[in-house]
Specification:
With 233 residues, the chain is α+β, with helices and mostly antiparallel strands. 36% of the residues lie in helices and 7% in strands. Residues 25-35, 207-233 have a biased composition (Basic and acidic residues). It holds the Pfam family Cyt-b5.
Length: 233
């Protein structure tokens, strides 16, 4: 009786089948997604933009300010701070000193009663009170505002005495201008809401009217009269 021989499986075939089975049952690894695959803006992108804006802002601030932190602006640069740009503070200047008056936009902002002071140095107007004519730094000729009107006829005084008196009164008039300017600087400097931020820099621009301006009518009306002055004055 012939023997039925069973065919033995080839060596390694079982191992191969097990390997294939393991491969079919093993979890497949999903490809890793990156931020570039996300069609929407991620939080990381927002942070990156914010950091760039902060760096740019710091760079602009460094460019516009001095090493001690104070602002140094030319008259043209100062004109940008007149309240029309809501992203900028409101500045005004008195005799070269810049003050931040952003705390009171109803007065110094667009449409405010004193908006004409914003973005400029109008020292002359602060002294004379002529807000339309004297929005300039030039105070040349303002001394006349404090000099008396000569309304006394036949005054018993020699020419030499008159000359000395005029020189003394002219000196006092210039001191009065300085005191008035300083008073306004201290008004903004010591104000609870306003504060000093820096200085106006000379950009070399020549004012063709400097020294040629005449005293405004409002200031002329404030001049004292000689007849109303005492001897001590």
């Amino acid at each position: 009786m012939s023997e039925l021989r069973q065919r033995q499986p080839a060596a390694g075939s079982g191992r191969q089948q097990n390997t294939d089975a393991d491969a079919d049952t093993a979890p497949r690894r999903e490809p890793r997604r990156t931020d570039d695959d996300d069609p929407f803006i991620s939080v990381l992108d927002i942070i990156r933009v914010f950091v760039v804006l902060v760096i740019a802002s710091c760079g602009l601030s460094y460019y516009m300010t001095n090493t001690d932190g104070s602002v140094h602006l030319t008259p043209v640069e100062l004109s940008l701070y007149n309240g029309t740009d809501p992203s900028l503070p409101i500045y005004l200047a008195v005799n070269g000193s810049i003050f931040d008056v952003s705390a009171n936009p109803m007065i110094y902002g667009p449409g405010g009663s004193y908006n004409f002071f914003a973005g400029r140095d109008a020292t002359r107007a602060f002294v004379t009170g002529c807000f339309k004519e004297d929005l300039t730094t030039d105070v040349g000729g303002v001394e006349e505002m404090f000099l008396p009107v000569e309304d006394v006829e036949d005054e018993q005084i020699t020419m030499a005495e008159r000359t000395l008196r005029h020189e003394r009164e002219l000196m006092l008039a210039r001191e009065q201008i300085e005191k008035t300017v300083l008073r306004w600087q201290n008004f903004f400097r010591n104000h609870k809401k306003y504060f000093e931020v820096g200085l106006v820099e000379d950009d070399g621009t020549v004012d063709p009217e400097k020294g040629k301006r005449v005293l405004c009518e409002g200031a002329k009306k404030q001049r004292p009269k000689r007849s109303e002055m005492t001897e001590e004055e």
